[in-house]
Structures are given as structure tokens and as C-alpha cells.
Amino acid sequence: MEAPPPPPLAATTPASGRSRRLLLLPLLLFLLPTGALRGWEAEERPRTRQEECHFYAGGQVYPGEASRASPADHSLHHSKAKISKPAPYWEGTAVINGEFKELKLTDYRGKYLVFFFYPLDFTFVCPTEIIAFGDRIEEFKSINTEVVACSVDSQFTHLAWINTPRRQGGLGPIKIPLLSDLTHQISKDYGVYLEDSGHTLRGLFIIDDKGILRQITLNDLPVGRSVDETLRLVQAFQYTDRHGEANCGINTRYYRKQKSALLVGNLVAKLSNLEMS
What we know:
signal; 9 helices; Thioredoxin-like_sf; 11 strands; Thioredoxin_domain; alpha+beta; Glutaredoxin
């Protein structure tokens, strides 16, 4: 007796093809690297304002910073900047009032100088600092102090940033010089250059009227500097310059007003004692 013939093969239909693809989909998702999925998610999800601070022109400005790279990833140059020692000399081309001019440290002899570094032009935190210092430059000038900002960008990039309206991510007209450190030598001398990233940390240096470095502030990339605190520090150092080894505690910026009020109070008390006698 012959065996019955095998049943005919079912014809492949579009529906059965879709069914097989649906069955394979979980397997593909399982095998797909999770990093790729995170990449898809990052592309679809709009970046937050904080994340935008790490991006520029479609690329990442601070390599590894968005994922909080370990301190070992930062390669800083040995700093020549030492507190109470002459500030490292510098000279270079700056943009001042929309023009290229040669600028050097000794131009500020006889005045206090706030000299600060920022990572790059056309980024997000940097203009807020520069605009804030520029908007309050008259307060610095009133206490015999000038302000200069510096980055590793060229003077041409500085000028382009200044000529870009603020609503489009530019600086607009600015009241402080922007110094170019295209060779990175200035930022290396001041110990703020990140070799692996190609730009600087947020460093701020207060140099007195004799060219002596009095204060250093170094910030990690996401956080800007305080104009109020910088003014307070300058006033505190100037007070100690006038009064020798006088100690200045917290909020020394207001010490002058407190001192004047104390003197007036003492004078009134003495006059009252004279009248009573």
C-alpha cells in the first residue's frame, strides 16, 4: 500500500510574509545594541537648554562633557600664573569697538585688570558672561579697573560673533575687548587650556595695578562667573592695598559704606558729648 502523498505547500502570501516579519521583530530588537536605541531616542527628543550649552553648529563643543567625563580626561598645562607673583605676560590681537587692535598686558599698568577666559565663540553660556561684564563695565571703570575676555578663537571669529545680533546667538555691540589666543599660548601660560578639547576652562584672573596676580577662579564648563563677586573681590583687594595688611571678611564690597557710617556715628557721638559737657 502506497503512502499518501504529502500535502501541497501553502502558497506564500503577503499576509504570511508580514507575519514572519512580525515574529522576527522582537529578535531584532533584542540583538540591536542598546546604544543605537539611545541614539534614536536622542535624535527624536529635543535637547534641553542645559544640553544645548554643550552643542555648537551641529556638533559637540565639549567632548565628553555632556556625559560628565572624569577629571582624568582633562589634560591641563602647567600654569605659570601664581598668586602674589607677576601675571604671565601676554600680547595679541583683540577686537575693540569693532576694530582689530594690538593689545598687551602692560597696557593696563596702573589699573586693575579682570582677565577672563571662555571656551568658544558662538556658544550659549559664554555670551551671557561677556554681555554681563560688558553691561557693567562702567562699574569697573569707576574703581580704576578694566575687563578683557579671551578665547582660542581668531579675531575674525570674534568680529563675526560681535556682528551677529543677539537674537541670532551673537554678542552684538560689546563694550569690552575680545582677545584672540589662536596659538593657545596665553591660555597655556595661565593654566586653563584643555589639550584634549582644544579650548579653555572658564578661568578668571584679577591682576592689580602693579601687574601682580591677586586672584584666580577656575570653573568647570557649564557654570559661568559672577560679576557681583568679581566686583567685590576687586574692591576688597583695593581696600587692602590702601590699608596695608587690613583683613577683609565676607561681603567686603560693602565695607567702605560701613566704615563711613561708623565714622559719622563716632563724630555725632563726640559732638553730643561736647554739648552735654
